[in-house]
Design brief:
globular; two-stranded antiparallel ribbon; mainly alpha; 9% strand; 2 strands; 3 helices
Length: 86
Amino acid sequence: MKSHPAKIVRADETDADAITTILSTGFQNDPVCRWLFPDDDARERLHPEFFGPIVQMALEDGALNDEKLYPRLDLSDVLTEWDAVQ
């Protein structure tokens, strides 16, 4: 199988909605998210409100703890880089 290198860039404010959607969708079946939001419909509705502020803080120069977001150029995926909180 031949791999194709992903073209990724550092995210900026214009990527916020797309990244929020990617994270909201990607974590729908995550065990912790299912525990936080047990109802499937509520989780789908509330995830953007949950992830939106996290994305905004990360885009504001890594306001939480030097976080970085790297979406693919086609916005199909996002790489997150979170430093451990000490």
